[in-house]
Amino acid sequence: MAERANLNDPTAYQLALTDPEGWWSDWAKRLDWFEHWHKVLEWEKPYAKWFVGGKINACYNCVDRHVAAGKGDKVAWLAEGEPGDLRVFTYQDVLDEVQKVACAFASLGVQKGDRVCIYMGQGPELTLAMLACARIGAVHSVVFGGFSSDSLEERINDAGAKLIVTADGSWRNGKVVELKRIINEAIEKGCPTVNHVLVYERIGQPLAEGAAAYDRGTWHDGRDVWWHEVVGSTGTTYPCEPMDSEDLLFILYTSGSTGKPKGIMHTTGGYLTGTSATAHAIFDLKDEDIFWCTADCGWVTGHSYVVYGPMANGVTQVLYEGGPATPEKDRYWRIIERHKVSILYTAPTAIRTFMKWGDEYPQSCDLSSLRLLGSVGEPINPEAWMWYRDVIGSGRCPVVDTWWQTETGAIMITPLPGMTTTKPGSATRPFPGIYATIYDEEGQDLLEKHGLPVGGLLVLKRPWPSMLRGIWGDPDRYVKTYWSKFEDAYFAGDGAKMDEDGYFWLLGRVDDIMLVSGHNISTMEVESALVDHPAVAEAAVIGKAHDIKGQAISAFVILRAGNQPSPALEQEIKQHVAGKIGALARPDDLFVVGELPKTRSGKIMRRLLRDVAEGRALGDTTTLADPTVVRALREQYEDREG
Ligand code: 6R9
Predict the structure, then answer these.
(1) d(Cα 513, Cα 550) in Å, to the nearest integer?
(2) Domain stops at, among 458, 492, 509
């Protein structure tokens, strides 16, 4: 493995440290530019410009250039729908289709710089719509196909979207998500900038026999347009718009801990450099690989590691539309077996769910094609890490735990397969060219001050190509959120430790860290101790206001299949935490629950749990994957508290 990894020269770290601009421009040179940049970096903190003066098109780099290089017959997508339907697209097919979609967008009045809101299920049309925007120079704003009409309305209006691209529905967990009906609802609330809604017919009518009826929403003539009526008939060729390296590529909304979602802005040249470099080096993409990132394009992980990073590298990918338990809990493993997936990139929340379901599902499938496993989205507790490596990877595949954010655009802290000796639960080291360190509240670099090991606040000290360029429509919030806490560094909002080997251990959001009797305790560490107990599948921990201690620890846990809640078991679990971390970390309350409130990417929304525990009205719930979960939890909590 080591000798054939794409990036296997340990001097890369030192090289990138001493000459970051040289390092990044070497990666940028792997892309095709219409015009070369005249300056690598212009840095006026906190505003960065990368590859200044360069002209480039992201769609060209993800599609056209592979066809031009004779790889038109290579499969780009193995697109599997939840009902089991399979569509195969070669890079030539993608090139043909994306041009038709670009023509259709143009016929609906979309021009360079316009915003297009995309609200679809995971599948080729969603990806085509993103790439068609990039081709024209329009800015996409993908909203997860599952968010409510309120979330949509807010995001459509904030971006001032002219066009909405959607579908009549999409399949998820055996049901139809009524995308078009929800779009209608959003627009009825008032979306004055929207001229057209382009609708892909995914489900079709009449429905297959036995399928549940669904609501396609009222059709508004003039506003609503069928995809199949304009895609293909309005033109089949559309040249790639030469974009400035710093032209906006997309906006992606990420939940603020309070207040309204932030429209994170990413530009073209630097973002594509960062995502293509990291995809190449961390996933070690080879020509024969079948790559599957299970993330939806409504999440940044889908943008960077389904669309731009892998496609810029011309890799073959699986795109999967639906849920992991349809028709059976072995769906992911069947997909890996069917398509001989070699690299899997998924989230700890999914891994813990699979652990809860039991080993028999993966063990009944042939997973021998796998050679590399990745994790993203949350800290992965050592238990889940080991299970992932042993049960899914049969102990043979390196595991890369990758830390990054919507704001960072690309992976920042990660092992490099073939080079890094991993430790279960650690994201290890910053990617070469990324300068990460730990500060205290006062902005002192603890690494410089004390040396290893250290713990505190994670910061990034140097600009990097794929960094966010701002918040759409709210320039002050950009400065305030990321560049005000510390004078000389980007504040990521996460807590972290660096061990004696300089490895990073992410501790979760700083807002989630508890202060119990004067001691900082990370929710993540208590959660990790909880899931270490054999009866516990998942756990969420919060600090609840307490008169004496400041905060008391409340734990919400999901039990593994085959365990029944009982006072004795609850005591035992609490004791287990005390044994692992210390008496101080012993949860004061422990609630056995059926589900936890999570975002689309599987992050537990602890602030909503705090709202429940402290009896407040629920804050912004628009980023929840399933808003019913938190309501049910509140009822259960109130019953129990009596
Ligand atoms: C890519 C993505 C960002 C936040 C980030 C952190 C958490 C992501 C992680 C991780 C520990 C990892 N996070 N990956 N924590 N280890 N490997 O998730 O973007 O949705 O913006 O979330 O997710 O707290 O700050 P985003």
Answers:
(1) 13
(2) 509
